[in-house]
Amino acid sequence: MQITRNDPATGAGPADWFTGAVYVDPVATPSGPSRLSASSVHFTPGARTAWHTHPNGQTIFVTEGVGRCQRRGGPIEVIRPGDRVFFEPGEDHWHGAAPDRFMTHLAMLDVDEAGASATWGEHVSDEEYGKPLG
Amino acid sequence: MQITRNDPATGAGPADWFTGAVYVDPVATPSGPSRLSASSVHFTPGARTAWHTHPNGQTIFVTEGVGRCQRRGGPIEVIRPGDRVFFEPGEDHWHGAAPDRFMTHLAMLDVDEAGASATWGEHVSDEEYGKPLG
Hints:
- Two copies of one chain form a homodimer.
- Chain A is built from one helix and 14 strands; from the N terminus they run ββββββββββββββα.
- The first copy, chain A, is mostly beta strands.
- Chain A has one domain: Jelly Rolls, CATH 2.60.120.
- At the A-B interface, β1, β4, β5, β8 and β11 of A face β1, β4, β5, β8 and β11 of B.
- β11 of chain A pairs antiparallel with β1 of chain B, so a sheet runs across the interface.
């Protein structure tokens, strides 16, 4: 049993993977037979991930604020605390805060056999992000 | 992409697995190549799991309130929002609320190849639960 209270420090979301200021707290890392990787991700207003896919899919669970998510070719959806979103393996998508609201979610997935959690693509442009809601 | 907003309903924690009133919201279920199972578990004051183990270990992430956890043979530990606890595969343990405080945590794990998430043992007695903190 390992209790982690005060470390590691909250990290800044890498600029290659996010637009805007994003803060990431690690929650779980693959260990032994478990491939589970989880983090609590805090998006400041207007911040969002780049387009990306996950080899084994991903679940996000909104814990605070108001957010947005979209799969490639689909409408932009509003997500709120208590909402869960499952992204299929290989499904191109993004998620983030609403333009004028903070949003925090838990992000959970199983890494693949090589230990990879995601494949990252281009940033979500202001034009894409600003489209009307679906 | 599947957004789940209002279902399934919050479930009551089974009396075989918990002492006291516990409310469980499913967050993620194994799907395709992902073995991830996650739920948001709400413990009313004094409520706790029975002793149990997980084949691939488990991570809990406290999101609200004040809780307790203990591995077999170790001290009772206090857990608070932001704390993460990793329980090793096969490690006998319990977790729950403080006697006078509500506690909510996200519980996350990978099920095993047979789809099993846990092996349940006896309840945590009032005497065990009431021991001094470590």
